[in-house]
Amino acid sequence: MKKQEIKKLSKDEILKNIGKLKKDLFNFRFQKMNSQVTNPAKIGETKKTIARLKTILKRKVDA
Prior knowledge:
Blueprint: H1 3-8, H2 11-33, H3 41-62
């Protein structure tokens, strides 16, 4: 998800996306433990996207 796309989202949509991505990250961790990860780069990408969403959410809350 790109920064421009994230800025267009509402607070509720951001929170829903964070929840979904956290579930995905949880599943990726289990796949990693079982050596079933098809794309290990997705783990880092998911973490970065969660951080971006949280940053934009913080800016919207403070504004």
